[in-house]
Amino acid sequence: MSGGGVDIMDRFWSAPPVSRTIVAAMFVESALVHSGLVSGMRVIFYPSWIFKFPPELWRLLSSFLLTGGGLSFLFDLYFMFTYASGLELTSSRFTQPGDFFTYVLFLATIILVVAGFILKSMVFTQALLLGFIYTYAQDNRGKKAHFIIVQIPVELLPWATLVFTLVMGGPQAALQQGVGVVAAHLYDFLTRIYPTFQGGRNYIQTPAAIKRYFGANRSAFTNKGYGSSFRPGQPVPQQQSRGWTSGFSGAWGGRGAGRRLGGD
């Protein structure tokens, strides 16, 4: 294997567990579908097939894992890996074991209800990605990011991406993708804005079982292959996040559904 291949695999195996699992599942499912070995109709969200007997419950997950075809297959995997792992490792929102998993589960539930049952969308991958970019943008407010050939405040990236999708894919594509912003903003409101500024209670807490699964009963500081875990109440060192739409994160500056929007 070439040195570049080794570096890619090393980075993958050093990634945090939730992000690594999502990307691995995306790779397997999308490779099978786009190679023709599995029909795309077997993985999309379709309520009539989910609630029949026997129920095809895997569609509740597989509808979040299908990338675009062609180059979008590679770009979607890269962007999902970069954003998800960046949030899971460095976001101050997810300092306790299992917090990021709970966040992903919350986003997926809202997207499933709104995009799936209300808007009748069948694939939610782009909505989940946009949810990640919205949270990333909120965490990095005040910084600049490249979008196509210009620099814009990073907090404007979700809206710039939606405009690009509207132009390239039409209103329906933008509406379905925009559900990710709705889900991520609702999470932000319920976990940060409402408790902090209105004195309300944060009802979205990571269940004890999930915390234990992700190592809550271990020592306060534990070195792992993908980084470090910290017990509640322990300070967490901040690192620079990397994202697929930020001008300070890599060669790709922004994107719509499976298209390159810009770079350094």
Tell me the layout of helices and strands:
Elements: H1 3-13, H2 17-34, H3 47-50, H4 59-62, H5 71-90, H6 99-118, H7 125-139, E1 144-147, E2 150-153, H8 157-169, H9 171-197, H10 208-213, E3 221-224, E4 227-230, E5 252-256, E6 259-263
Antiparallel strand pairs: 1-2, 3-4, 5-6
Helix pairs in contact: 2-5, 5-7, 6-9, 7-9, 8-9
Pfam family, one: DER1
Biased composition (Gly residues): 250-264
Subcellular location: Endoplasmic reticulum membrane
Features:
264 residues; mainly alpha; Rhomboid-like fold; two-stranded antiparallel sheet; 10 helices
Question: If you had to describe this structure to a student in words, what would you say it looks like?
Answer:
Residues 227-264 are annotated as: Disordered. InterPro entries: DER1, Rhomboid-like_sf. Residues 236-248 have a biased composition (Polar residues). It is found in: Endoplasmic reticulum membrane. The chain crosses the membrane at residues 22-45, 57-80, 100-119. α6 (99-118) packs across α9, α7 crosses α9 (171-197) and α8 packs antiparallel against α9 (171-197). This protein has ten helices and six strands, in the order αααααααββαααββββ. It has 264 residues and is mainly α. The two termini are 29 Å apart. Strands 1-2 form a two-stranded antiparallel ribbon. A two-stranded antiparallel sheet has the order 3-4. It has a single domain (3-263), classed as Rhomboid-like fold (Up-down Bundle), CATH 1.20.1540.10. Mean pLDDT is 81; it is low at 219-225 and 228-264. It is globular, with a radius of gyration of 18 Å. Helices cover 52% and strands 10% of the residues.
